[in-house]
């Protein structure tokens, strides 16, 4: 078995079409000569894209090491509870809006997975909803000014939208006194001709208003314009446009966080973040995407109630640590920010992953030491006591099992 307890980790880049071209390559210190989108950088042991750790025996799959040596890597207690490393850590660069989506509960994911297995839908099929049996709660912390849609607007705020947008006035009676479910189902199941007739004039007006400088990113019309302006052909209008008006538009500043549990409809709009989630790839989509959309399944698992977005500033602890409490057992996340002569000390209860956003830090363990800089990632094995310091400044995020 490996003697060292602290290693560098190499993640996997995902080149999804909505990703930006510059942020992740610049952070990693590599060129993007082909000008392809760098959307996500995965750090973890998800079987579809496991990270590797750099050892004296070469690069080894973290997924395989967790499987073969779970006591040393994630700890016996974590393995007994989850049977795997229960989280997946990511850096995201969102250039174009992501799909309107909802994540299922653990019970719903298990049932959905078994049903699709029984139906013979292949795991890699474009029509598959459930890739695993796990739930997918997630937390994001902004690395830049970040914008997202998160849950339904409060009752009166949504009613005001329906009353003041001329095209939506026929929806006022359908919504009634706050019937989110009926309103959502009506929008999602409308005939496409009706969707086009309702939304085309609205989109044209919003594009004109954006060009006139009448809109800001707090306005739904700004994002609707971003979707359609400059396109020669609009084709059938995406009914995900309704959600941009029905959901809360949330601005998150660097170092602030938003947690998203099962059933909360959401979509990332723009910006860079660090994201931590349960080790799952289960996403139910309802629009704004070329990927598989299953409206019935999405609506079945959506929580139809108003949400006041909770933007967390984090809880300051000593030693430069800021913790962002999440109401799940699968993962925890902290910001570790140190200035000259600052230090942080801890004993890992589980496998811990540190991603360095800026600066350089030295990690001193009981067995070995490591220096980790911007664009690099360190992994610390369960049970290891370690000490972190910096000569100048370091900003990093730590994923762990609470």
TrEMBL record:
Per UniProt, the keywords (alphabetical) are: Isomerase, Metal-binding, Zinc
Enzyme Commission identifier(s)? 5.3.1.8
What detail does the entry give on cofactor binding? Answer: Binds 1 zinc ion per subunit.
In terms of SUPFAM superfamilies, this protein maps to: RmlC-like cupins
Residues annotated as the enzyme's active site: 285
A GO molecular-function descriptor: mannose-6-phosphate isomerase activity
Q: Name one Pfam family in it.
A: PMI_typeI_cat
Catalytic class of the enzyme:
isomerase
One GO cellular component assignment for this chain's record is: cytosol
The record's comment on protein family reads: Belongs to the mannose-6-phosphate isomerase type 1 family.
Q: What is this protein called?
A: mannose-6-phosphate isomerase
Q: By which gene is this protein encoded? A: manA
